[in-house]
Write a structure and sequence with these properties.
Elements (H helix, E strand, L loop, with lengths): L1 H24 L3 H18 L1 H15 L3 H25 L4 H5 L2 E3 L3 H8 L5 E5 L5 H10 L5 E4 L5 H12 L4 E4 L3 H10 L3 E5 L9 E5 L2 E5 L2 H9 L3 E9 L1 E9 L11 H22 L19
Parallel strand pairs: 1-9, 2-5, 2-8, 3-4, 3-5
Antiparallel strand pairs: 6-7, 8-9
Length: 301
Amino acid sequence: MGRRSGTFAAAMQYWGLMLAYGLLGCAPLWFAKRLARVLADLVRVIDSRHALRVEAAAKDRLGLDAAGAKRLAKENYRHYAYTAMEILRLARMPDEAALTRIRFGDGLDAVRSAKSEGRGIMLLTGHMGNWEWCGFTAGRYRLAEGVVARPLNNPRLDAFLRRIRERAGFEVWSKFGAIRRLFKTLSRGGGAGALVDQDGGPRGLPGFFLGRSCTTMSLPVEVAVKAGAPLVVGGVFRDREPMRFVVRLKRVRRPDPAADAEAEVRRLTQAVNDDLGDLIREFPEQWIWTHQRWRHGRSER
């Protein structure tokens, strides 16, 4: 019975996605935007417990007052709905049309130059902006040949999402056993990507994120240090309205070959956290504040 229930639930999830694909992915854009806003506002009211968590985190991490935190929570829930709508529309949009909706800020030339040095480049981002459009951009601009991603529990949903990711011309690697793929890609001068904004667990590297103690999964940084590859933090963010995006890339950071490897991992992991924090402060409504990011923090900064 458990397996049947699981199979039925997976099928319902898939057909629910197909319904959303029709409503948000294929409908006229003006209608999809309006529907996304309505659904987001409705979910925020129903999901008041998590909305209050967003408000509390915004007050504590960003120093917002009550009114500002409430506005951020409202825009944050709309961000989730817009993100889903944008991913579904990307699934049916020709590459050439999708690329016209992306503009670059500063940093593209520096990243391309760093990659051309032959040591590869590690591209790091988080659950901010639209991470699926981020992967599409990295692939189409030949910045990354592969990204690490956790497979979804629902195989049909995972296959749907994998098709979107792989259409850009890069591979999707399971987080299980990703070390070898990351190192191999960097060693041959390629680009690799990973998301690094989640709690690192009790064994994660201690550090700080948005001024609060945390632990961080430092594996991508460790691989980059071992390979001698530069790192850069970036993301693809909504540019004033849904379906318009701007790419933000922070400074390229290089491991010091003369330094102690462990010390370099600690230094660069914290630098990555700081760069992610800067982007979140720039686009505060476009990060998933409901993450338990500071669950294993130990002290204040």
